[in-house]
Amino acid sequence: MASPTVPRGAPRSPMASPRSFIWSRRIFLTLLTGFVLLPVYVMISSSLKPLEDVSGKFRWMPSGLTIQPYFDIWKTVPLAKYFWNSLIVAGAATVCSVVIAVFAAYAVSRYQFRGKRVFTVTVLSTQMFPGILFLLPLFLIYVNIGQSTGIALFGSRGGLILTYLTFSLPFSIWMLIGYFESVPRDLDEAAMVDGCGPLKALFRVVVPAAIPGIVAVAVYAFMTAWGEVLFASVLTTDATRTLAVGLQNYSTQNDVYWNQIMAASLVVSIPVVAGFLLLQRYLVAGLTAGAVK
Amino acid sequence: MTTLVNSPKGDPAVREDTPGATRRPRRPGRIRRLGLPYLLLLPALLLEILVHLLPIAIGFVMAFKELTQNFLRDWSAAPWTGLGNFDVAVDFNEPVGKALLHSFWITCVFTLMSVGLCWLLGTAAAVFMQETFTGRGFLRTLFLVPYALPVYAAVITWAFMFQRDNGLVNHVLHDQLGLADGHPFWLIGDNSFFALLTVSVWKGWPFAFLIVMAGLQNIPKELYEAAAMDGAGIWQQIRRITLPSLRPVNQVLVLVLFLWTFNDFNTPFVLFGRAAPEAADLISVHIYQSSFATWNFGTGAAMSVLLLLFLLLVTGIYLVLTSRGRKASRG
Amino acid sequence: MRRIRALASSAVVVSLLAAATACGGGSSSEGSNESPKTLTYWASNQGPNVEADKKILQPELDKFEKQTGIKVKLEVVPWSDLLTRILTATTSGEGPDVLNIGNTWSSSLQATGALLPWDRKNFDKVGGKDRFVESALGSTGAQGKDPAAVPLYSMAYALYYNKAMFKEAGIAEPPKTWDELTADGAKISKGGKWGLGAEGSNLSNNIHQVFVLAKQHGGDFFTADGKADFTNDAAVAAVKQYVDMMATNKIIAPGNAEYAKNQSLSDFSKGKTAMVLWQAAATTFKSQGMKDDEWGVAPVPVQSGAPGAGKATNSMVAGINLAVFKNTKNTDGSLKFVKFMTSDAEQKLLCKTYGSIPPVKAAQSDPAFDRPELKVLRETLATSATALPQVSNESQFETSVGTAVKNLFAQAANGKKLSTADVKAELTKAQQQMASQ
Fold first, then answer.
1. C432 near B CB under 8 A
2. d(Cα A231, Cα C88) in Å, to the nearest integer?
């Protein structure tokens, strides 16, 4: 395991970290790694067992290994289709949600206007109603829109995208307001003095400075859409079903295909983790210290 | 507004920046842009109305109707019950009200513990990983794995590990470490609360980690340098600079985690099925049971409305307190 | 405080919206024949998995299209979603034309008025009511009302036992009475092996077991006029008898109290438990690696030893019904499709594939249903199975009493001796929940 070692490169403080700090870090991060990895290990080892072995007594080292589950997952459930649906839905919801949230957060953080407080509080309060209960009303609204305008929201990816982007919107706005506020106003005002319009200032100055925050919000929006189960189970049909719901199909009335659930989860998580890896450097880049002056 | 949302004051670097409320813009073309903020908010507002406010409004109406399966097909025909649904929900001497109160209490305790632990783990990890060291990038990705795994898969894996006879948890606790007396149950009975808490923290802390990590990027290096100059050690720097600077991020983060955990449905539902053990009977599953499982959507809606009022109250108090706290700490 | 005012004003916005929203329910058109060339069919998951179901059903739907020119759009809805999907469809009026429902939902769904009632006229279009087995018809809706659905696949409970384990314990033949079962179970239950398996946290399964036991004690969980009556002597005795198999007789492993994902079947397949009470478990045993000749099947025990009607009931009527959604735009086509699915040929073919019993009398004569397992199930269904109470709050019953049994199992698993008073207290709670909702 990559246990933390003595810091290299430039530390935040000019002074070297004391031993107590380094040791606390080692111990803490090692324990945390163990906690995080435990279920992942169980998933990996279970995904490599034949079904009749999975439900046996737990063993650290599996007795017999097979990669059969990794082939079976595609036959039991149309995994590729669900994966594709999830990717489109979560991707589109993320992009739309972040763009809309950037606009809204910019307005709130940079302008004074009537109704600002009402807006932010109302948006936040939408998060307090249990989803389970506005499921039926939302379904009803979508169906009615479909019947009166012909726009198919129910059963389509579009409807799901719309739902999910709205789910992540309130917190995205709130978090972005926070991140935007910490971008000094002087920066965008300087840009405006240079002749940029407000939107140009937003995209040229504020957004680049708040990249870590925006990436964090994007990850949040993506994961909200990626993992949602309840609404997806009602608002999709077989053709538009997403992964989060589709995985449940590995457990049927009489059989629970434990090994395939685990194998499928691992397979579909790989692209997401890879995406995280790619986003890493944006998460930590961001505002350079010099810009604050 | 700046008192409500995060103002720059949390960030000591821009302390000289006056609050937006008192600021008179010296920007050109002010009148033309008067409508701009509204235009910027418009898409967000329209979507919120369509997907959240309108359904919630309908939910409010449902709370006053007798919406059993007999009327599901045509809601307008369902009889109005006035406060009947609420009476049932808050009659704490009757089983339904008593169960709701119990579930509410469990949810509160659970939420507080889960949010506290998630925040603690997330912040500690982010702070410890602020400096570069070998394997930092790897760990950072690894720590986001619980967040990336599909909820269903993650929770079912935990359920698998918490099995009494065949699970990893009892294997380790009893067979290997000898800590437990016999094999305890985790998915039924009183321990189920801790099982739920573990899963919830495991799933939730990476989010806190992510947000705090992004927040740490905005703390200017100069502050640390100045503190170091004053002779502050690393622990003191964390206490005096890192944590106060994270305040605006934390304010939103804790609120987000709170509302999220309070309303979480997937985790308990996948872990326990539709009848959660009493010790882990979270309000969301409880409401599901009182509406979908029993086909009585009116009672469920009434419970939800009560919940909404409670959460509004808590959020309001929280915002007042944290904003005031921040002002005090500034002064 | 400006913030308070903000909260208040947002509350006002919300409530204004509430007032402005004339709460509109689904359109309640009564079915038509606007689109006579297409149908949407929601099938339930009957085969090993959803994909397998599609492969099984699609050729049949093609056959139907060839016969009638009606194209059927198939969606296999997993059990985890089916009821929620049906409820939302009911609310909005936007649903399939024909759908599978769990037969225990029949009365509940009947009460919503979303399903086409099967009056004489409609039954005649599919060949008449008397084509179907009587007991299966008993689970299609409330008594005295036109059925809400027709039986499609039937199932019953049987006792599955491990031949080798029985032999090892010196048990010559499967138990016929509960006394025999507990005695046999006690012989087996030692050294990490157990007599009987149970799914203590599976609410539906709990209900199925205690319902049958209540019948055997001469009672029921509902009075004749459909009122909940969970605390009568028979009901209490039934629940106590079931959980006592863990608490007193100690033939069910305590760990079974948390089972809800068919772990009892994998325990059985691995030779850890010698008996399970289940409906059509053959395919599961196979996928768990148990060979067909390693297990045997017998009727579920009854107090007298000979299954029959009334007190000799030994199974609930399990199965799937086929219903027509009232809002269909193709009523005639839907009825044709039901006729097709319940035709002798399709019944033989589909039930054979799914390992269930055809509820159509004529189809049962096929030799495929003479396999020892299916023979037991078929005879049970024909002579000694009783439908669960056909009340509109059946799902509340499952939730409340199922949970009560789950809680009792949890107590038994922790070593508590359960008195009749304990059982009664738990059932009283369930009854109160039922009454006030």
1. yes
2. 11
Asked whether the beta carbons of residue C48 and residue A147 sit closer than 8 angstroms, the reply is no
Query: What count of other Cβ atoms lies within 10 Å of the Cβ of residue A19?
Result: 9
Q: Which domains does chain B have, with CATH numbers?
A: 105-295 (1.10.3720.10)
When pLDDT is averaged across residues C45-59 and rounded to a whole number, the result is 90
Give the pLDDT confidence score for residue B111 in this predicted structure: 96
**CB contact residues (below 8 A), chain C span 51-80, against chain A:** 51, 75-76, 78-80
Whether C92 and A139 lie within 8 Å, measured CB to CB: yes
CA distance C131 to chain B (A): 31
Enumerate residues 6+ apart whose C-beta is below 8 A from C403.
Answer: B275, C203, C430
Average pLDDT over residues C58-68: 96
Distance in angstroms (rounded) separating the CA atoms of residues B123 and C295: 56
The minimal CB distance from B41 to the residues A107, A121, A285 is found for A107
Contacts of C349 (CB under 8 A, 6+ apart): C60
Asked if B46 is an interface residue toward chain C (Cβ–Cβ < 8 A), one would say: no
Cα A181-A185-A189 angle, rounded to 5 deg:
145
Distance from CA of A64 to the nearest CA of B (A): 17
| CA angle (A253 as vertex; A250, A254 as ends), nearest 5 | 90
**CATH code that applies to domain C38-154+317-386:** 3.40.190.10
| Residues facing residue C115 across a β-bridge | C325
Q: Do C399 and B293 touch (CB under 8 A)?
A: yes
Query: CB neighbours (10 Å) of residue B183?
Result: 19
Handedness of CA A243, A248, A252, A256 (dihedral sign): positive
Q: What are residue A208's phi and psi, to 5 degrees?
A: -55, -35
Q: Domain map of chain A by residue range? A: 19-71, 73-292
pLDDT of C331-372, one tens digit each? 999 999 999 999 999 999 999 999 899 999 999 988 988 888
What superfamily in CATH does domain A73-292 come from? MetI-like (1.10.3720.10)
Q: Residue C295 forms beta bridges with which residues?
A: C162
* C130-177 confidence digits (pLDDT tens): 999 999 999 999 988 999 999 999 999 999 999 999 999 999 999 999
- Rounded CA separation B126/A25 (Å): 11
Show which subunits contact C, needing at least 3 CB pairs below 8 angstroms. Answer: A, B
- What is the least distance, in Å, from the CA of B201 to any CA of chain C? 23
Name residue C323's beta-bridge partners.
C99
Q: CA nearest B290: which of B99, B57, B131?
A: B99
Domain C158-316+393-435: which topology? D-Maltodextrin-Binding Protein; domain 2 (3.40.190)
Q: Is C2 on the interface with A (CB under 8 A)?
A: yes
C1 touches chain B (CB under 8 A): yes
CB contact, 8 Å: C404 with chain B? Answer: no
Residues of C in contact with A122 (CB under 8 A): 10, 13-14
Q: Do C26 and B74 touch (CB under 8 A)?
A: yes
Cβ partners under 8 Å of residue C415, min gap 6:
C254
Residue C226, phi-psi category: left (phi > 0), alpha (psi -120 to 50), beta (remainder): left
* pLDDT value for A84: 94
Sequence-ordered list of residues with C-beta below 8 angstroms from that of C300, at least 6 positions apart, any chain: C157, C158, C159, C212, C277, C307, C314, C315, C380
Q: Which of C23, C90, C114 sits opposite B58 (nearest CB)?
A: C23
Assess B3–C contact: CB distance below 8 Å, yes or no.
yes
Distance CA C154, CA B138 (A): 55
Q: Do residues C3 and B4 make contact, with C-beta atoms less than 8 angstroms apart?
A: yes
- Measured in angstroms, the CA of B52 and the nearest CA of chain C are apart by 10
- Please state, in angstroms and rounded to a whole number, the distance separating the CA atoms of residues A52 and C270: 8
